Amino acid sequence: MSEQILNEKVKSSKALMLYVGGEHCGVCKALYPKITQKFAEHFPKIEQLRIDIENEKEFISQLQIFAIPTIIVYFEGKEFFRRSRNISVDLFLNEVERPYEIFMED
After folding, report:
1. Phi and psi of 60, rounded to 5°?
2. How far apart are CA 85 and CA 31, in angstroms?
3. Does pTM top 0.85 for this prediction?
4. pLDDT band at 6; cut points 50, 70, 90
5. Which domains are seen in the chain, by residue range?
6. Is 101 helix (H, G, I), strand (E, B) or coil?
């Protein structure tokens, strides 16, 4: 994935959750299914995208991601949340809940 493709995806999505992890990262592998399941349950309108750092090292540094796992949530093309390393799933869900309600109203 290129920076241009991601930028287009961010701009075209009302809401996007970007998960950046690595194949050789145990925490990344353990957290990914938990966070994607919880987001699907609590925030079904947020599109989910995963990027593997091993395949995108230069691109990831352009996003200023220096630790994995990193989760970035965008609403209407703007970054709202960025969390890295030790991420509490429940706390992160609580942080995303209010902007989700505001931006994703029908």
Report:
1. -65, -40
2. 10
3. yes
4. confident
5. 3-103 (3.40.30.10)
6. helix
Partner residues linked to 70 by β-bridges: 20, 84
Question: How do strand 15-21 and strand 47-52 relate by DSSP bridges?
Answer: parallel
Strands in 15-21's sheet, in edge-to-edge order, are 47-52, 15-21, 70-75, 78-84
Torsion 65-68-72-77 (CA) sign: positive
**Which residue in this structure is represented by tokens 């630790």?**
67
What does the pLDDT look like over 19-28, one tens digit per residue? Answer: 999 989 999 9
Token match 């091993």: residue?
54
Q: What is the tens place of the pLDDT at every residue in 38-82?
A: 999 999 999 999 999 887 877 787 888 889 999 999 999 999 999
Q: Which amino acid is at 26?
A: G
Give dist(CA 99, CA 61) in Å, integer. 27
User: What are the backbone dihedrals phi and psi of residue 42, each rounded to the nearest 5 degrees, phi first?
Assistant: -90, -30
